[in-house]
Amino acid sequence: MAALEIPVxxxxxxxxxxxxxxxxxxxxxxxxxxxxxxxxxxxHVLKTVADEGENEAAYSNPDLPxxxxxxxxxxxxxx
Length: 79
Prior knowledge:
Layout: E1 9-13, H1 21-30, E2 35-39, H2 52-58, H3 70-78
Parallel strand pairs: 1-2
């Protein structure tokens, strides 16, 4: 990550049971010019979840919308 010379957006969430936010923070520390976007209550498949039951169900439900704030963060980074 430290060797990258391009813009980098790192996205993490407090509800991701597969990748802790500390991993994203470590990546950001390795490339301080990166942008770190941490969104509360979204899981690894970028859906809003309130608890572990919703988290598991979200993996197999393609009809759930992407978490609020995610697209805005991506578009803001791209601009």
